[in-house]
Design a protein that fits this description.
- By secondary structure, the protein is mainly beta.
- It has a four-stranded antiparallel sheet, with no helix packed on it.
- About 15% of the residues lie in helices and about 35% in strands.
- It is elongated.
- The longest helix is centred in the last third of the chain and has 15 residues, at about 230-240.
- It has helices at about 215-220, 230-240, 250-260; strands at about 30-35, 40-45, 55-60, 70, 80-85, 90-95, 100-110, 110-120, 125-130, 135-145, 145-150, 160-165, 170-175, 185-190, 190-200.
């Protein structure tokens, strides 16, 4: 083996390209960027309430080209929309309809987005999207009812969304997936970040480390006599905590009082 000496003061080639203006105009919004495994890339700017083609720049291998329109009718905004590129040039995007409901669309980097699929009838306050190399696309969104997930398998339509957590204070959803189709959903809730994992089989894992801060003794202090009802209430409290509805001893006690009274 022969080792070559590096001259003093020599530097490795800069891996970064020089910055370039790909908008051609002033745009007061952060871009949404995605690359596929083989290097197809797209940068899209939120259009907020301006329904119609999205301003976008496509990656050509030498750099992003000049911004041009990307057909579609989704409304994208920071934390309420995103794009993901997979395969050769396949594209999925999620955002909101003009009336605020979460929605998604499929298409291609060159051809734009196709028909929009509405995922819920309630207005969403946050939307996120991801995909894997096979075209499994997952959309997470938050609304006044909680956190929801619509996971589309390759070649199929977006299914009816399932509930991830029934909490009314959720916002800023995030979602990730892997080559197996497992899904991790995260969201912000009252100063904390919560998450749930769903296996490719379609089941959310029961988190074994979820522990209550109240016990049977606390229920007795609230006036509940020793009976099978104690175990039932503790089980219900664990279910609510798992779903992100309870975030501390005070909220657990309040829920216990409600269950005892009911």
């Amino acid at each position: 083996m022969t080792l070559a000496a590096v001259p003093a003061g020599a530097r490795a080639a800069d891996p970064w390209s020089a910055p370039s203006d790909i908008t051609g105009a002033t745009i007061a919004a952060p871009p949404l960027v995605s690359f596929s495994r083989i290097g197809a890339g797209l940068a899209v700017w939120p259009n907020y309430a301006a329904q119609g083609p999205l301003p976008a720049s496509r990656w050509s291998g030498q750099g992003f080209g000049a911004a041009g329109p990307l057909s579609g009718s989704l409304l994208l905004a920071p934390f309420a929309g995103g794009v993901t590129v997979y395969g050769r040039q396949r594209l999925a995007a999620a955002g909101r309809t003009r009336s605020g409901q979460p929605a998604a669309a499929l298409g291609s980097v060159e051809g734009g987005l196709g028909e929009t699929s509405r995922l819920s009838t309630a207005r969403a306050n946050g939307v996120a999207v991801t995909s894997n190399v096979d075209g499994f696309v997952a959309v997470a969104f938050t609304d006044r009812h909680g956190v929801h997930l619509s996971a589309r398998r390759p070649g199929r339509r977006f299914p009816r969304a399932v509930v991830v957590s029934r909490t009314r204070s959720a916002s800023f959803p995030a979602v990730a997936t892997n080559v197996h189709g497992d899904v991790l959903v995260g969201w912000y809730q009252r100063g904390r970040v919560l998450s749930r994992f769903r296996s490719a089989a379609g089941h959310f894992e029961r988190l074994r480390d979820v522990h209550l801060e109240v016990s049977g003794a606390d229920l007795a202090d609230l006036g509940l006599d020793e009976s099978p009802r104690v175990g039932e209430i503790l089980a219900e409290l664990r279910r609510r905590k798992l779903n992100g509805e309870l975030d501390g001893r005070d909220s657990e006690l309040a829920a216990a009082r409600e269950l005892i009274a009911g």
